[in-house]
C-alpha cells in the first residue's frame, strides 16, 4: 500500500471513523465520565454529531450510559490488548525491566513516540513514587521534557524534527525546564550523538532519568528504554556509570532477540 499519510479531505479518508475515535479519546483520567455537552465541547463537534457517535459506541458496547453521563466500558481494553498482542517482544522487555527494578530498586519503562508525546507501553514500577501522577501503561508525557522523548526525537528525519520544533509549545514545569527551542534542539542533537539522553528535573522536581533507544535485530526502532529515579537519592555519576550501562545492556539483548 502507498505509505503516504492521508489528510482530511482526501478521497480515501473516512471522516466518520476519525470522529468516532476522537470521541473515544476524549475520555481520560481527568474526564472519566462526561455529558453529551462535555463530549461535544472536548471534541469540538456539534451536539447532534457527538450524540450520534456516542449512541453508536454505546450500541457497540464501548460506552455505557448512566442518566446524562457517558463513560467507557472495559471493552475498550480489547483495542489495547490487540496492540500489545501484536508486539510479542514486549513480553520479553517486561521481564528485562522487572529485572532492572529488582536489581536497582528503580522504575524502568519502554515508551514510543506518538505525536508530540511519549506513550508508556511497558513499565516496571518501583515501590517509591516519583511523580504526583501515577505512571502506567498508556500514560502520555510531553516528549520535549522526558529522556525517552528526546532519544526518540533524535531518531526522526531532519524534516520531521524541524516540524516538531516549529509547532511544539515549551512550558516551564520547573526552574530547570528548557524553554528555548535552540537549547532543546541542542539537547536532542546531543542525544543523537551520544546515543542516550538525560533529563534532570525538567518535568518534575526531583525526577531524574536516563534513556536509550532500542532497536530490533533488523534495525527497526522499537521505542526508548529508561530508568527514572530521585535526584536526591541517585547522583549523576551513578546514573551514567551504573544505570546507563544497565540500560544499554538491555537494549542490546532486545536487539538480539527481537527480529
Helicity level: 40-55%
Number of helical segments with 4 or more residues: 9
Question: Which stretches are low in confidence, meaning pLDDT under 50 for 5 or more residues running?
Answer: none
CATH class of the largest domain: Alpha Beta
- Mean of all residue-level pLDDT scores: 89
* Major sheet characteristics: 6 strands, antiparallel
Describe this structure in words.
A hairpin with a 6-residue loop joins strand 7 (197-200) and strand 8. This protein has helices at 15-26, 36-43, 47-60, 77-85, 89-104, 147-153, 158-167, 181-194, 236-257; strands at residues 33-34, 63-66, 69-72, 107-114, 117-124, 140-142, 197-200, 207-215, 221-230. The chain is globular, with a radius of gyration of 20 Å. It is of the alpha+beta class. Strands 6-5-4-9-8-7 form a 6-stranded antiparallel β-sheet, with helices on both faces. The mean pLDDT is 89. Helix 1 crosses helix 2 (36-43) and helix 2 (36-43) packs across helix 3 (47-60). The chain has 9 helices and 9 strands. 28% of the residues are buried. The chain folds into 2 domains: 15-78, Winged helix-like DNA-binding domain superfamily/Winged helix DNA-binding domain (Arc Repressor Mutant, subunit A), CATH 1.10.10.10; 87-257, Beta-Lactamase (2-Layer Sandwich).
Amino acid at each position: 500500500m502507498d505509505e503516504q499519510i492521508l489528510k482530511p479531505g482526501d478521497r480515501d479518508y473516512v471522516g466518520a471513523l476519525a470522529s468516532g475515535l476522537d470521541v473515544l479519546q476524549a475520555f481520560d483520567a481527568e474526564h472519566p465520565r462526561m455529558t453529551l455537552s462535555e463530549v461535544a465541547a472536548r471534541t469540538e463537534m456539534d451536539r447532534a454529531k457527538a450524540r450520534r457517535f456516542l449512541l453508536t459506541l454505546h450500541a457497540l458496547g464501548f460506552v455505557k450510559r448512566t442518566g446524562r453521563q457517558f463513560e467507557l466500558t472495559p471493552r475498550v481494553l480489547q483495542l489495547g490488548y490487540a496492540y500489545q498482542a501484536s508486539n510479542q517482544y514486549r513480553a520479553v522487555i517486561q521481564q528485562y525491566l522487572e529485572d532492572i527494578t529488582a536489581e536497582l530498586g528503580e522504575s524502568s519503562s519502554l515508551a514510543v513516540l506518538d505525536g508530540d508525546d511519549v506513550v508508556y507501553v511497558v513499565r516496571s514500577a518501583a515501590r517509591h513514587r516519583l511523580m504526583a501522577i501515577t505512571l502506567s501503561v498508556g500514560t502520555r508525557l510531553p516528549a520535549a521534557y522526558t529522556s525517552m522523548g528526546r532519544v526518540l526525537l533524535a531518531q526522526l528525519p531532519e524534516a520531521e524534527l524541524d516540524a516538531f520544533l516549529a509547532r511544539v509549545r515549551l512550558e516551564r514545569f520547573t526552574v530547570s525546564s528548557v524553554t528555548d527551542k535552540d537549547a532543546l534542539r541542542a539537547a536532542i542533537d546531543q542525544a543523537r550523538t551520544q546515543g542516550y539522553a538525560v533529563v534532570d528535573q525538567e518535568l518534575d522536581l526531583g525526577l531524574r532519568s536516563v534513556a536509550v533507544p532500542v532497536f530490533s535485530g533488523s534495525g527497526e526502532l522499537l521505542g526508548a528504554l529508561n530508568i527514572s529515579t530521585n535526584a536526591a537519592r541517585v547522583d549523576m555519576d551513578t546514573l551514567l556509570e551504573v544505570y546507563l550501562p544497565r540500560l544499554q545492556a538491555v537494549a542490546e539483548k532486545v536487539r538480539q532477540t527481537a527480529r
